[in-house]
Amino acid sequence: MVVKLHNVSVRYITGDFKEIGIKEYIIRRLQGKYNIREFWAVDNVSFSLEKGDLCGIIGSNGAGKSTLLKVITGIMVPTKGHANVNGNIAALLELASGFDGDLTVKENTYLRGAMLGYTRAFMNEMYDQIIAFAELEEFQDRPFKQLSSGMKSRLAFSIACLVNPEILILDEVLSVGDGAFRKKSEAKMMEIIHSGVTTILVSHSLDQIRRMCNKVLWLDKGKQIAFGQTKELCDRYEEFLAKK
Ligand SMILES: Nc1ncnc2c1ncn2[C@@H]1O[C@H](COP(=O)(O)OP(=O)(O)OP(=O)(O)O)[C@@H](O)[C@H]1O
Q: Where is each ABC transporter domain found (predicted)?
């Protein structure tokens, strides 16, 4: 099993407790005006994926899709349950985050590689290819903050894809950069997908899910409505949307 989630739940706590400071906290507690709210964004989700699976996650806004991806990529620890993930993950979420604006493009590439667990030797081997794919040869020694946001995404995409992921996580990012780069990035993504990696894709396009995925996870308000075959679940989801 490449990905296995067992009764995973994630709780967010919201309210005024973060910014108010200890004094205000005590005053509000004494006055009974201290409000915090618990919120289960993901509530008891279990499913597993094997090598080569391409799983789509569907559900309305706020269903918990992005939160679940954060658990799978290890950015968040579930409040309850377990997530077992075996393999290198390339997560194309919030693409341009996690870079250091003052370091150069080259330094950032090595830094991101190190964060993904790759050795310097491996990155030396891959570096030229990454920069060439991102079409940033002329920007290698510029500070990262001087890149346009499209260029930043291109670099993030190139690093994530060219370092041989075993698990690919895509959050509505099938459109990176401008027209020409988008075509190239989609082709690259399809190449990776077809090379036998396990892919998890969040998309609001049911057409895309039907075309690409062999399994589907349907979430609604954090709860798992169903996990199973694409056609059956997409049909049910469409019926559900029609009745809404
Ligand atoms: N940091 C946070 N603190 C509190 N609540 C949060 C936080 N992040 C998300 N939420 C809430 O958790 C729920 C699930 O959010 P999430 O972003 O996972 O949904 P989603 O299915 O990805 O939605 P969308 O389709 O709109 O992108 C939402 O109700 C959201 O308001």
A: 22-241
Query: Tell me, what's the pLDDT at 24?
Result: 83
**Distance, CA 42 to ligand 1 centroid (Å)?**
9
The domain of 24 spans 3-243
Tally the domains of the chain.
1
Structure confidence by residue, pLDDT tens digits, 111-164: 988 887 788 999 999 999 999 999 999 999 999 999 988 888 889 888 888 777
How much is the pTM?
Answer: 0.79
Pairing type for strands 215-220 and 223-229 reads antiparallel
pLDDT in tens, 167-185: 988 876 555 566 777 778 7
Residue for token pair 């995973």: 8
pLDDT single digits (tens) 61-71? 999 998 999 99
Gap from CA of 207 to ligand 1 centroid (Å): 23
State if residue 41 touches ligand 1 by the CB under 6 angstroms criterion: yes
3-state SS record for 85-99 = ECCCEEEECCCCCCC
CATH code for the domain of 53 = 3.40.50.300
At 204-231, the pLDDT tens digits run 889 889 988 999 999 999 999 999 999 9
Q: What residue's CA is closest to ligand 1, atom 17?
A: 66
